[in-house]
Amino acid sequence: MSSQNGNLLSVKDLRTYFETEDGTVRAVDGISFDLERGETLGIVGESGSGKSVTNLSVMRLIPEPPGRIVSGEIIFHGQDILTLSPEEMRQIRGKQIGMIFQDPMTSLNPFMRISKQLMEITQLHLGYDKDQAYRHAIKMLDTVGIPDAEARVDSYPHEFSGGMRQRVMIAMALSCEPELLIADEPTTALDVTIQAQILELIKNLKRDTGTSVILITHDLGVVAGMSDHIIVMYAGKVFEQSPTRELFAQPGNPYTKGLLKSVPDPAHEHGRELYQIPGLPPDVAHLPPNQCPFAERCYRVEDICRREFPPFVKLNDEHFSLCHFAGEVYAQSRVESDAKTAGANRRVAGTEASTGGGTQR
User: Phi and psi dihedrals of 325, rounded to 5?
Assistant: First the structure.
């Protein structure tokens, strides 16, 4: 059963640091979020924002050293998994929480047949014998759309295409019907048509099994059609969290607005330069403690941004933003959204007028 407040997963004030020669890298620095059963949570942000480290922390896969989970709670099924022994965690990892890693070629063992790698999971977690595990491996490959699964189950990873290897990773992650699936950039390095197939597969499997999903990506277009809620991360912190529809319609953080403006829009006039956020993400090992991490790249920056760390502002019951001017940015986004809607309505009305209101009868 899920925890008492209805959440399958609750992360509270999580901090994961890495000790390096250049200093302490605060890869994840005090983030909190909840995930309800059956929901999909999208985590977005530029490279180095802390997305993958967050979910490696949830899986207790942070390499120690140099990394360590400094503090916080990760409540899964009402139990803080940070208090579990390594053996207890192994019983959860793979069985109740599955993960699809970024690069299937480095996650799959190149010297082992696909069947063997799939069989290990069910033999370990479900107690299957060899024949049961083998039949289940074929079933899972068929479930994720591998053609002629029975003939291909004994292939090696290099005999599969990139898209097929990613399907194998999804089959492995779902073999024990986990309650939580973490997908870490599952479409990286795949062509557009294969990306769409993989995302549709995850969406269908979630619908059929009721699995909760955490989808990590730097592509806002991916989470737009996949997630119920979105977390925007920057420099190891949550900069904004909101229901998906509202975040796209009315962002309340300058960083989120920059990410949205960076998405190519086919409606833009020909020759218009694609927007990009100026500068580069900061070095999280040397962040000034008393200023906004985004201050040096922000169009809305003022003196207070360089003097004080911003508050986490509540914009409504489900929408929060880490910004001194979150309310103003949120209100301005509403004005821009209304203007865009009005412009679209005028264009539709103009088109109807020019065609005489439609086909005459």
Answer: -115, 30
